[in-house]
Amino acid sequence: MQLGSFSNAVYTFCDWVARLAYINLLWILFTLSGLVFFGFFPATIAMLATLRQFIRKNHPPVFQTFWHYYKKEFLNSNKLGLIIVAIGFILFVNIRFLHSTSTNMSSFLFYSSIIISCIYFLNICYTLASYVEFDQPIGTHIKNALLITISNPIPSLFLIFGFAAVYFAVTYLSGVGFFFSVSMLGLVILSSANLAYKKILGKQEKLRTSPS
């Protein structure tokens, strides 16, 4: 019985490794097929949507699922990407400008902009997770992601440490980056978002059951 459980665990682990590697390669292929700029966000959404199916213990064909979401979300995901890139560019220019000045006020604004940029990075991750989880307007995804970022520090810490772990794995383990980097980051994003959703549902349940 124990041997069977161990064999199942090994099989599950190997299955997940193979899926992550395959999805990572598909992400690279479809990003390049969209000339990088137009392919990045559709490929990222397709990757997250495909991973979401496996997290939910569904087992659809990987390529067909990835291709389905890539085609379906090509235009809308690029609209979302345009908003993300535009805001990120504004923050980047603002930080570079403040860094080049030397007044006390500019130093305060510089570090404030760094903090805002970190919050924005977390907001991007939750926005992408929300996009593949819920059928809502883009503005609603961004607003809800910001609320999650501000009100749920533990999932955000999990997200940060997860990204750090992937970074060190990619840096110090040869070959990991090409086969697993993006898909592992996607897994971290979805896992952190699911943790945040569970905490929100738990808080809502407490409010419903608490005596008025």
Model description:
- The chain is mostly helical.
- The chain has eight helices and no strands.
- The termini are far apart.
- The mean pLDDT is 91.
Biggest sheet details:
none
Strand runs, count: 0
Helical fraction equals over 70%
Instruction: Summarize model confidence as the mean pLDDT.
Output: 91
Rg from Cα: 19 Å
Task: Extract low-pLDDT stretches.
Answer: none
In N-to-C order, the SSE pattern is HHHHHHHH
The fraction of residues in strands falls at under 5%
For this entry, give a set of tags:
mainly alpha; 212 residues; single chain
Topology:
Layout: H1 2-33, H2 40-55, H3 62-72, H4 74-100, H5 104-133, H6 138-151, H7 153-172, H8 176-209
Helix pairs in contact: 1-2, 1-3, 1-8, 2-3, 2-4, 2-5, 2-8, 4-5, 5-6, 5-8, 7-8
How would you briefly describe this protein structure?
Helices cover 87% and strands 0% of the residues.
